[in-house]
Design goal:
Rossmann fold, 2 domains, eight-stranded mixed β-sheet, 15 helices, 17% strand
Length: 375
């Protein structure tokens, strides 16, 4: 689809992507405003588009972010926003759409709109300031393909405290470019030369599609870790036929707090759950979300795992979640469900007063601060 037609109507996948990106900005900004002494917060969108879909009026991330900022007195004083798109028409439309936002003139720092090719020139500009500390910044990269989306660019922002990045990763196009010599430079800029070559070799020897996807995800995780991205999350988008995941949203952060927030947001947009555990992908063929109930599923695995992991230890419910969830699909609710099952089975004890054990509907309570002891 030509770029100009892409911005006519927002697909269900695009709407989910907008919700995830803007939802994280709202939560991130609130944490930064309440927990840090920062005087300014940054938002960078390097492939911003026109801000609204032309024919159905759907507001995309730039407008959602600025509307939120314009509604909050403290954020109006703090937000520094930079939007970029190489298409001059998109930039002009974005400026017009921004001007229609109520109270937009109250922002202390007017939104900055640029039209720069996201490539070597931009990386050079950012690297010129690499010795300076960036203000806490959330950067969103949503390229049409993958040109300009490099680990060097992401690392130039991610290096400082409070800076997180969310980027769109076109899995299908990566596969198409992996063995095309015309795109070697772009693929190497994403994974690094050695890692990209190792990926090509392993990919050739692998036939299973899910294993091939895992190879790419592992290579991407290694590249992100190399630039300081200790925490990474991926969220898949299936095509309109719903056959396989064609694109991912990838979140990278140095901080656990950002990881925890984004995990909850991505989980809420998942189309499919198994035993209440999100599978972290959006399928446009699924209306609402569905919950599969296999005979044995991921929640059963968690129930079996926790007593082994924490044998003999006493800790709060929240400490169990914080200590164990990184790198798993499980959210806080899943841990509480697993702990309820363990208590019913007599495999843990909880130090709650007897009269606080259940709510009105007979559901065992598992507040974050509750201390439990594993047998």
């Amino acid at each position: 689809m030509p770029v100009q037609e892409f911005f006519d109507y927002a697909s269900p996948q695009s709407k989910a992507k907008i919700d995830i990106a803007s939802g994280y900005f709202y939560a991130w900004a609130n944490v930064m405003m309440s927990k840090s002494s920062a005087k300014r917060l940054g938002y960078i969108d390097l492939f911003s588009g026109p801000g609204c879909y032309r024919k159905d009026g759907t507001k995309s991330t730039p407008i959602r972010v600025l509307e939120y900022a314009a509604q909050h007195e403290k954020l109006r004083e703090m937000l520094v926003s930079i939007f970029n798109d190489l298409d001059a028409l998109c930039c002009a439309e974005l400026q017009r759409n921004i001007s229609k936002i109520p109270n937009i003139g109250d922002l202390k720092h007017a939104p900055q709109i640029e039209s720069i090719d996201v490539g070597e020139k931009l990386v050079t500009i950012i690297k010129a300031f690499s010795d300076r500390r960036l203000i806490p910044t959330f950067m969103f990269l949503d390229p049409w393909g993958y040109k300009g989306m490099t680990m060097e660019l992401i690392g130039s922002v991610l290096k400082d405290w409070g800076c997180d990045c969310l980027f769109f990763f076109n899995y299908r196009r990566i596969i198409m470019g992996l063995f095309n010599p015309y795109f070697t430079e772009h693929i190497d800029a994403i994974f690094g030369e050695d890692r990209a070559e190792s990926l090509r070799n392993n990919y050739r020897r692998t036939r299973n599609p899910s294993q091939k996807a895992a190879l790419i995800e592992d290579a991407l995780a290694g590249a992100c870790e190399e630039i300081g991205g200790k925490y990474m999350l991926t969220f898949g988008f299936r095509g309109n036929q719903g056959r396989f995941t064609q694109q991912w949203l990838v979140f990278v952060s140095k901080g656990y707090r950002g990881y925890d927030i984004m995990k909850g947001i991505m989980a809420s947009k998942s189309s499919v759950f198994e035993q209440g555990v999100p599978l972290y992908y959006f399928d446009p063929q699924v209306v609402g979300s569905i919950d599969k109930e296999p005979l044995l599923g991921p929640l059963d695995d968690l129930v079996a795992h926790l007593p082994k992991r924490f044998e003999g230890q006493t800790m709060t419910v929240r400490e169990v979640y914080d200590d164990d969830n990184v790198g798993t699909p499980f959210v806080a609710k899943n841990y509480k469900d697993a702990l309820r099952k363990l208590e019913e089975a007599g495999r843990i004890t909880a130090s709650r007063p007897p009269d606080q054990r259940v709510r009105r509907k007979g559901v065992v309570t598992m507040p974050d601060e509750l201390e439990i002891t594993f047998q």
